[in-house]
Amino acid sequence: MNGGPKAKKNRNQRGGKQDREELAINDEIRAPEVRLVGDNVEEGIYPILKALKIAEELELDLIEIAPMAKPPVCKIMDYQKYQFQQKKKLKEQKAKATKVVVKEIRFGPQTDEHDYNFKLKHAIGFLKEGAKVKSYVFFKGRSILFKEQGEVLLLRFANDLEDYAKVDQLPVLEGKRMTIMLSPKKQASKKKDADKAKDNASETEPGD
Asked: Are 180 and 154 a contacting pair, CB within 8 Å?
């Protein structure tokens, strides 16, 4: 099978390197020999002219995918298909990337026990969902005199959440706010849930 007009047309329509990603293809590859990979080819090290000829015979492109390797690694495939696959892979990586969500929980310096437990429950829910929790005590007017109480409250909050969160930032006073930042401790919470499920299962096992 020879290249024919179709292969030559494909090779000439790719445009200059500056019009594409910074990948050398076909005649742009300057290495005297390359390591060839790809479907329907015998992988190995080839002189560049031989590699180009194989690509042309298959009516595909020779793409330099690892220029820093010695010798550079080249793949034989359709360049447009290669671009599509790379864009798809990048899109999937972005989709998998965790978007950082920060939930805020506000306390007063003299929060009562009922309100505290209510907000603690909400914080556990946020952390289980993978969100960070930014908790703060807001000091209004003369309540700034109770800043020590605010610090104790936030440290208690962090301690009560130790199975679900790690402390990113200890209580810091910024203006009228004292803030603590917590991140979800996913592995620990999962382990705790697994241990709990295991204990429940052992309790329900019939006796001898």
From this structure: yes
Pick the CATH number of 102-201 from 3.90.1170.30, 3.40.50.2000, 3.30.1330.40, 3.30.110.10: 3.30.110.10
- CA dist 38 and 31 (Å) reads 18
Task: List the chain pLDDT tens, one digit each, 208 residues.
Answer: 444 434 444 444 455 544 445 788 998 999 999 999 887 788 899 999 999 999 999 889 999 999 999 999 999 988 888 888 888 888 888 777 667 788 999 998 888 899 999 999 999 999 998 889 999 998 887 766 768 888 899 999 999 999 999 999 899 888 888 999 999 986 544 455 555 555 554 544 444 4
Residue from 180, 137, 123, 127 nearest 155 by CA: 180
Domain 4-79 has CATH 3.10.20.80: yes
